[in-house]
Design a protein that fits this description.
Methylamine Dehydrogenase, Chain H; 51% strand; WD40_repeat_dom_sf; WD40_rpt; 1 helix; four-stranded antiparallel β-sheet; globular; single chain
Length: 212
């Protein structure tokens, strides 16, 4: 006799007021009061990362119930994408509306881990809004895509504090999703999905028809 699947139970969870209450709804800029909008989100077992319209990244530590803030120097612009990674060190990549990309290497209280906050910048390749970010599992590679179809590969040397970036692919439409595993980058744009083999620098399209 075939087993009967247990019914699916939907649960409704309450808003995270402890998180939302730690983020201001307005900030003062000179004589102006500016409304703060939440524009990007990523989570893992350790952190909840929230990007905002004022260029501030709010990072909530789930173990210590602490909220920390990180920002870009200079112009305050909307954060469009955030991507967390937990490997030997905790990393968060942030992209903005003008194409700026930064990586924050977070401080850890664990022995042998990073003891000083460090920031790496992906310099000057993207010129438009960041729409996707993807890490390699070890945190040594970061891929970023923008709404003009550019995909940039950044090699990070966390020990030496070095970030080298280069343009690896350019699509005719906006990038909507990136995922990386085993030397293969999955790329989805508004028009198509493809596999980019990073060692051979070759492209294989998924399917034959353009996306409508």
């Amino acid at each position: 006799m075939a087993s009967v699947d247990s019914p699916v139970i939907f649960k409704e969870f309450c808003p995270l007021y402890y998180l939302l209450n730690a983020i201001p709804t307005k900030v003062q800029k000179g004589f102006r009061s500016i409304v703060v909008y939440l524009t990007a989100l990523d989570t893992n077992e350790d952190y909840i990362a929230v990007g905002s319209s004022i260029g501030m990244l709010y990072l909530y530590c789930r173990h210590f119930n602490q909220m920390k803030k990180y920002n870009f120097e200079g112009k305050c612009e909307s954060i469009t994408f955030v991507k967390l990674l937990s490997c030997f060190d905790d990393l968060v990549a942030v992209g903005t509306a003008s194409g700026r990309v930064a990586v924050f290497q977070l401080v850890s209280s664990l022995p042998g881990r990073n003891k000083q906050l460090r920031r790496f910048d992906v310099a000057g390749i993207h010129k438009s809004s960041i729409t996707a970010l993807a890490w390699s599992p070890n945190g040594m590679k970061l891929f970023s895509g923008d709404d003009k179809g550019k995909i940039v590969y950044s090699a990070l040397d966390l020990d030496q504090g070095i970030c080298n970036s280069s343009l690896v692919l350019e699509e005719p439409s906006s990038i909507v999703q990136l995922d990386y595993n085993q030397k293969v980058l999955l790329v989805s744009s508004l028009q198509r999905t493809l596999l980019f083999y990073t060692e051979e620098k070759s492209v294989k399209q998924v399917g034959t028809q353009p996306r409508k």
